[in-house]
Amino acid sequence: MSGVDLAALARDPAVGTPTYVYDLDAIAGEARALAAAFGGAPHLVAYAVKANSAGPILKTLLAEGCGADVVSGAELALALACGVPAEKIVYSGVAKLDDELDRAIACGARGVGAIQLESIEEIVRVERRAQAQGRVARVSARMNPSVEEIDTHAHIATGHDDAKFGIPLDDAGAAFAAIKAAPHVELVGFSSHVGSQFTSTASYVAAARALFGVVRDARAEHGRSLTFVDTGGGFGIDYGAGCAVHPADFVRAARAEQSAYGLGDLALYVEPGRSLVAAHGVLLARVVQDKRALTHHRPGVDHAAAKPRTCRQWLMIDAGMNDLLRPALYQARHRIVPLEQRRGEPVAAWRVVGPVCESSDDFGEHELPSDPPRDVAILDAGAYGFTMASRYNGRALPAEVFLRGGKVAQQSPRAASDEWVRERLM
Fold it and tell me: Which of 82, 107, 311, 357 is catalytic?
């Protein structure tokens, strides 16, 4: 990764394991490739901060022209502190607190670029908060396009009728009426987001068509104030099982539909997270020990006729589900490789597990050297890794290292476990 010896990093006492390592140059390259797909047309790549909220990553993407998609007051504060201009921030989320709305309305010359309205009830709340500040809040209407057949895991599908996200298409008229009746709210855009980790453009295009249909119908009333349409993110990556499409394919497909609906004059916004950072982050872990056990004989079984006993093998590492939750939460599979391997070395199937006291702390079966390696890397861990980490079981949060130009540019240390003890003692 970026020419840096990861094994040496893992064994450096100042770094150690578990540690996330990110390649900032590669992340910048992803942003440039995605921007090129717009072909010079007006657009905004609003990076989904929830994927990875590390300051060096936000600043790297900002330098490539990206804005930010935030879902909390803390993410908004972080984006602003990293230098993201308020007008290049869209604020999503179904349950924004009053003080979070106040911050979004107050920042910059005119507040954030758009507060994404996720319900008719939220329109009334935003109107009241903006009126209290004597400001007009710029908003976009996040529509739920009711796409039921979505090519992703159920936990990250957000554009179907049972999802908590967005304004249902059938409520579009009532939403427009509520916005029109709110003098301190200005409708500047429409958006949708139907899920994450798409490995084809089908669901994304279906949602875009539903969104563009609503926008086309609404332009008669709101055309003068509209400046953008936002088709969301969800661009998938190859976690090892293959991914035939690239982020640029989603942009090109959305642009083609936008033009077909006569909306080419509006800026196209997208909200990628995973696709910009996931492939360029790894989680380094140390092998603590191995465990081998024969399948046991069960009472009452004719052992002569039974299948031969087999040996089960576990490789226990110092990174767990508190460091990388995706496998436990989404049954996601991340490739795991040794940091050092000799050519021709025999391999075996190892069940890789962590130290957390849960059966779900399991990274699956992987082909690794028969003689257990000293350290391993969990690949494609740059998104939804550290941001979802916890201190469950009193474990310390992992460290983070940021690479640029073939060397370590920045790093943040792992928090000591004694800090957790002091916090819980209060």
Answer: 357
